[in-house]
Amino acid sequence: MQGMRIPRESPAGWLIEAPAKLNVYLDVLPRRPDGFHGIRTLLCPVRLSDTLCLRPDNALRGEVRLTIRSHHRSIDASQVPTDDRNLVTRALRGVWAARRLEAGCHVTIEKRIPSQAGLGGGSSDAAAAIVAANHLWDLRLTPEEALSVAAAVGSDVPGQLSGTANLCEGRGEQVTPAPIPAGVPCVIAKPAAGLSTAEVFSRCTPGEADGGSVTKLLAALRHGRWQKLPSLVSNQLQAAAMELCDELRMLAAAFHQFPFVAHQMTGSGAAYFGVCRSHQQALQAVAWLRARQAAWAVATCTA
Ligand SMILES: C[C@@](CO)(OP(=O)(O)O)[C@H](O)COP(=O)(O)OP(=O)(O)OC[C@H]1O[C@@H](n2ccc(N)nc2=O)[C@H](O)[C@@H]1O
Ligand SMILES: Nc1ncnc2c1ncn2[C@@H]1O[C@H](COP(=O)(O)OP(=O)(O)O)[C@@H](O)[C@H]1O
């Protein structure tokens, strides 16, 4: 797993950041025989992260003991599962199984990424756990092995392993690095309601996009041609999510009224993001959105 981030040691345990992602572009292709849709998506990490703290304890013999914390009042840590449904537990069990290892671990997750937002928080936690486990147990996973464990945990996990921007295809497991400039200011906001990924996909009418648009978007991002972004960013899950969520329609209307460079929903929602001209404009947008139904809004930038 060359070029990947590594965990850092602290008195509490090994720390690793798990950044949220924005889907700057998302095509939905027809449903496949395995029940998943083909997708073509550009995942871009931002400087909003959960933090994982891992304390290996092999005496736990295959068990993962999870503690979830949040200091942000709009993120309810009690809603995040701490049993086998947690994607971190599944990721750690996956890597140990790949090396036939009977290990164990205490993990504390400091949640800053809201759930059911399309920000990939759970998947990013899982990706970070795979990267950390590879280092802590000296597993020497090949990139292919890491991707395979990640894909078994969830469609969004492979694209978040590197912590950098990636073009993801297949059901999300075919990952190609896609350079997007770091430090581009943006705002992310979410209504109180969340959306289920499965439900949004089931409501979506897939397209037959040819991939040309994402190539144009990548070129515009690389060369800083911001004026082209409004016609190039795209999310084919957005219409289905809007049908399911009144609050999202209201939030979208607030985004339309603010002079963002470009804006759209991320993933299967219900978070929306706007690209800004400056960090100062991003801070103004947070205040604007909080005054107009956003239950949660942050100013951040691409990582
Ligand atoms: C839509 C995206 C875009 O990045 O992100 P989120 O909104 O979840 O953040 C992802 O494709 C989501 O990936 P992930 O959240 O890992 O999905 P999974 O757990 O694998 O699948 C949840 C459910 O979504 C549907 N699903 C998911 C991915 C896919 N390519 N086709 C699908 O049809 C399936 O019904 C599946 O049972
Ligand atoms: N570590 C985790 N953090 C957050 N949610 C998790 C985690 N592990 C499993 N989940 C479950 O996965 C669901 C989807 O994860 P979430 O972070 O909400 O991603 P997204 O909003 O991108 O679909 C959550 O609603 C939650 O029930």
TrEMBL record:
It catalyses: 4-CDP-2-C-methyl-D-erythritol + ATP = 4-CDP-2-C-methyl-D-erythritol 2-phosphate + ADP + H(+). GO terms for biological process: isopentenyl diphosphate biosynthetic process, methylerythritol 4-phosphate pathway; terpenoid biosynthetic process. Catalyzes the phosphorylation of the position 2 hydroxy group of 4-diphosphocytidyl-2C-methyl-D-erythritol. ATP binds at P114, S115, Q116, A117, G118, L119, G120, G121, G122, S123, S124. Residues 86-166 form the GHMP kinase N-terminal domain. Its EC number is 2.7.1.148. One of its GO terms (molecular function) is 4-(cytidine 5'-diphospho)-2-C-methyl-D-erythritol kinase activity. InterPro entries: GHMP_kinase_C_dom (IPR013750), GHMP_kinase_C_sf (IPR036554), GHMP_kinase_N_dom (IPR006204), IspE (IPR004424), Ribosomal_Su5_D2-typ_SF (IPR020568), Ribsml_uS5_D2-typ_fold_subgr (IPR014721). This is 4-diphosphocytidyl-2-C-methyl-D-erythritol kinase. Gene3D superfamilies: 3.30.230.10, GHMP kinase, C-terminal domain. The active site is at K21, D156. Keywords: ATP-binding, Isoprene biosynthesis, Kinase, Nucleotide-binding, Transferase. Pfam families: GHMP_kinases_C, GHMP_kinases_N. It comes from the Bacteria. It comes from Posidoniimonas polymericola. Pathway: Isoprenoid biosynthesis; isopentenyl diphosphate biosynthesis via DXP pathway; isopentenyl diphosphate from 1-deoxy-D-xylulose 5-phosphate: step 3/6. Residues 218-287 form the GHMP kinase C-terminal domain. Belongs to the GHMP kinase family. IspE subfamily. It is an enzyme of class 2 (transferase).
